[in-house]
Amino acid sequence: MAPPAKLTCLLVDDNEMNRLTLEHLIELTPELELVASFANAVDCLAFFRDGGRVDVAFLDIEMPLLSGLDLVRILPTPQPDIILVTSHRDFALNAFELNVTDYVVKPVEFPRFLQAVERVLKRRQVPASQPESTPVPAPANEQHLFVKVNKKMVRVNYDELLFIEAMSDYSVLVLDKQKLIVYSTLKSLEERLPESFFARVHRSYIVNTRRIDVVEDHTLVFGKHEVPVSKSYQEAFYRRLRGI
Fold it and tell me: How would residue 243 be classed by pLDDT, with cut points 50, 70 and 90?
């Protein structure tokens, strides 16, 4: 059997030392093949507009002329998996809104780098045949939970929470009127949520079953948002939905 094809990738960082570090990490990762390394986002944009294509792009955020976030907004489609690499955590919400694959904080350590690569690989794989084990439910009489956001504890009412999406070490809580990014895994949040409200429908999503507007083609619609139901969770989820 032939070995799986490597993921082609490029990187953009205006700091030479950071570029060399990422180039070395890519060289150490057997799943990756470096195609290009740029010192600015303008040259990277030209690469894509000239027809260049890669599977993964590692992008610094704070760069002159064109930031990494601006670059993602104007990249031609289809876009590669984007992994943002930055010295600051403050851009995480903007990153989520751009649907990036991962958000890595500098200095980048090799285990964390491999975790980001693994996230790309999982997004490109068929979902596993078995869902994760069922968590211990939260007390049924609770109607809210508190989450830590920017050093503050914020109350989240269950009836206002549409769904939660995993983003590596972070989770994004999508509410009616806002999004909250918390430094917590999806698994950890799942264990705090009551089964009477919430269900896991995907490796990366937990949904509020009472807030689903439409179910169509294994996709759940919450207003303007859509959440996929992965194959491994479909049978249990639809069985439960019929009982609501």
Answer: low
The SS3 call for residue 182 is: strand
Q: Which of 244, 160, 157, 173 is nearest to 206 (CA)?
A: 173
CA dihedral 158, 160, 163, 168 (to 10 degrees): -80
Q: How far apart are CA 218 and CA 125, in angstroms?
A: 17
Per-residue pLDDT tens digits for 70-82:
999 999 888 999 9
Three-state SS at 21 = helix
Please tell me the pTM assigned to this model. 0.57
Q: What pLDDT score does 204 carry?
A: 92
In the beta sheet, which residues pair with residue 36?
A: 10
Q: Is residue 130 part of a domain?
A: no
Same domain? 21 vs 55:
yes
Number of domains in the chain: 2
In a domain, 82, yes or no: yes
How far apart are alpha carbons 218 and 237 in whole angstroms?
A: 10
- The predicted pLDDT at position 91 comes to 66
For 39-184, list the strands marked E by DSSP.
56-60, 81-86, 102-105, 144-149, 152-157, 161-167, 170-175, 179-182
**pLDDT digits over 150-178, tens only?**
778 889 999 999 999 998 778 999 999 99
- Determine, yes or no, domain membership for 134: no
Q: Find how far residue 205's CA is from the centre of its chain.
A: 10
Question: 39-72 burial, b for 16+ CB within 10 Å, e for fewer?
Answer: ebbeebbebbeeeeebbbbbbbbebeebbbbebb
The domain containing residue 56 runs over which residues? 7-123
